[in-house]
Amino acid sequence: MSDKDYISSGIIEQYVLGLCTPEEEAELEQLRKVDAAFNEAIINFEIQFENEMMRYASMPGAATDNKILEQIDSLKPTPVVPISIGKAKIIRYNWLRPVAAAAILVLGTSVVFNYILYSKNKKQQQELVNRNTTPVTLPVADYNILKDPAITPVAMYGVGYHAICRCTMFWDKKTGKVYIMIHHLPKSSSEQDYQLWANVDGKPVSVGIINDVIRDRFIEMSNMPAGATSFIVTLEKAGGTTVPTEDEIYLKGTI
Amino acid sequence: MLLTEQQQYTEPELVTALKKHDNKAYRYLYLHYRGSLFNVITQLVTDTETANDILQDVFVTIWKNIDKYDPGKGRLFTWLHTLTRNTTINSTRAKNFKVHNQNESLTDVVYNIGEKNGLEQQINQIGLRKQVHLLRDDYKNVLELSYYNGFTQEEVAKVLDIPVGTVKTRLRNALIELRKQFV
C-alpha cells in the first residue's frame, strides 16, 4: 500500500474518532512523528470533524448552564484521578460473563496465531516507518525563507469561534517583508478580504490584504512596520479598512 | 452576565490556562464547546436530565484529567470528543446494567440498547447519527456497534459473526463514506 493509499484508507478517520485498536493507535502515533504529510492529513481531518460537530451543536437549557458554570467557578485543583482517554477501555459488565468461557477457549487457540500476526505486524510497521523518513521537499525559494536565521517565525492561532484557523508568518526584519503560510483559513467571499494588522505601540497598523487565493505556498507581503510586537488577521470588506473590526478577528500571534 | 464570555483564547493559550486550572478558562471552554459536546451526548441518550448530568460529569472529568491531554497527540476538540463519548457510553451501560437482566446475551444487549434509548428518536435528530443511518446497512451496523456502543473490533466481529478483518475493512470504508457527507 502506498503512502497516499494508506492516508486515504480510512485509518485516519478511525484514529480521530477514537476507533483504533491500541496497536493501530501506537502505529499511527509513531508514523505521524516521521511523516509530515501523514500528520497534516490527521490535522486536516481533525479540523473537518470539529467543524462538522460544531455544526450540530445543540444547547443544554439555561438552568444546566448556570448549574455547571457555578460548579466550574467553585472547582479547586485536587489530586489527579487518573483515567485513560482514547485508550480507555469501556467498562465491561457481567453480561459478558455468559460469553466469557467461550471467549477464553477462542483466546487460547488464537494465541499462537496472534503471535505470528504480531511479529508480521512489527516488521511491517518498521518498514512503514523506514519508508516515511524521506524529508519533505519544499521549493528552493520557500526553503530559503525557512532557513534564514534573520527571519522571525510567528505562529498565528485562531481566536474564539475561529479556534481552528491557523497560519505561520515569517518576518524578515531587515527588509520588512513577511511571508505567510496558511494552514487553515476559510476562503473569503468576493465581497470580503482578510487583512493583516501589526500592533505598534498599542495601535493597529494595516500591513495589507492577504491574498488567500494562494494556498500551499508562502504569501509575500511587504510594509511590516518595525517595532511590531503582535499581529492580528481580520475579515473585512473587500479592499480592507483603516480600523480593524474587533468582532472579525480570526487570527492572532505574538513574537 | 453569567454566560458572558470575558476573554477570547487561542487554542494553545486555552490549553495552558486549562492545565493551570484557571476557572475563567474552564468557563470559556464550557461556553465554547458545550453545544457540540452536548450533541455528542444526546446522540446516545434521549433523557434530558441524564444528558445534563453527563455533561456536568464531562466537565468535572476534564478538570480532573487535563494533565493527561497531550497537544502533540491531537487537537483539544478530538480529546474532548473522545472523553465525552467514553463518559456517555460508560454511563448508559451502567444504567442499563442496573435496570436489566445480567443474563442477556451480547447480541441481545447490543440490539436492545437502541430500543431502550429511543434509537429512532436519536436518528431523527440532526447530527452525525443521522448521517450514519444514510450509509448502507453493513457500514451502518459496524459504526453503530463500534462508535455508538463502544464495542471493540473483536466484539463487533463476534456480534455480527464476521472476521475481525472484515470489521476493520467495513469500519474504514464506512468512515470514508461518512466523511464524504461532511461539509
Cα-to-Cα separation, first versus last residue of chain A: 42 Å
Subunit organisation of the chains:
heterodimer
Most extensive interface, chain pair and sizes? A-B, 71 and 79 residues
Please trace the helix and strand order of chain B, writing H or E for each element: HHHHHHHHHH
Number of helices in the DSSP assignment of chain B: 10
- H-E order of chain A: HHHHHHHEEEEEEEE
List unreliable stretches of 5+ residues of chain B. 97-117
Total count of helical runs of at least 4 residues of chain A: 7
Mean pLDDT of chain B: 84
Strand content of chain B: under 5%
How do the strands of the widest beta sheet of chain A line up side by side? 5-4-7-8-1-2-3-6
How confident overall, as mean pLDDT of chain A? 78
Uncertain segments of chain A of ≥5 residues (pLDDT<50)?
Answer: 84-89, 129-137
Q: Describe the biggest sheet of chain B?
A: none
Count all strands of chain A and give the number. Answer: 8
Structural class of chain B: mainly alpha
Which helices and strands occur, and which strands form pairs?
The complex is a heterodimer of chains A (255) and B (183).
Chain A: H1 3-7, H2 11-16, H3 22-34, H4 36-55, H5 62-74, H6 97-131, H7 140-147, E1 151-158, E2 166-172, E3 177-184, E4 192-200, E5 203-210, E6 219-221, E7 230-237, E8 249-254
Antiparallel strand pairs in A: 1-2, 1-8, 2-3, 3-6, 4-5, 4-7, 7-8
Helix pairs in contact in A: 3-4
Chain B: H1 11-19, H2 23-42, H3 48-65, H4 76-99, H5 106-116, H6 119-124, H7 128-132, H8 137-148, H9 153-160, H10 164-180
Helix pairs in contact in B: 2-3, 2-4, 3-4, 8-10, 9-10
